[in-house]
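Here is one chain, start to finish.
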Amino acid sequence: MGLSTHVLDTMHGCPAAGMAVTLYTTQGENTTLVKRVTLNADGRNPDGPLYDTASLKKGTYRLVFDVAGYFKSRGVALPEPTFLGQVSLDFGVANPEQHYHVPLLVSPWSYSTYRGS
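Its structure:
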């Protein structure tokens, strides 16, 4: 199943359609860009998993979600500086044969994540 993500906008009660998400591999402080995506109407990558099972490797990764950009595009009046600009989630993949789903529940003021199924 590989690696996937899904973002829900808890302020509006809907998927975060149009949010920009960037995926990196990490090694200590070094990061390597893997891909940039814009989430579809369901709050998911329109091309499916970010990594398929064959491509996902054991290691560490970072997903960066452009929270402020998304809420500004929705017309939400945000203070400057915004409370949440970008949300970065660093996580590890210990067993690449398993599915790693990294959902984000987000508002301009809070976020939550977990390893989904």
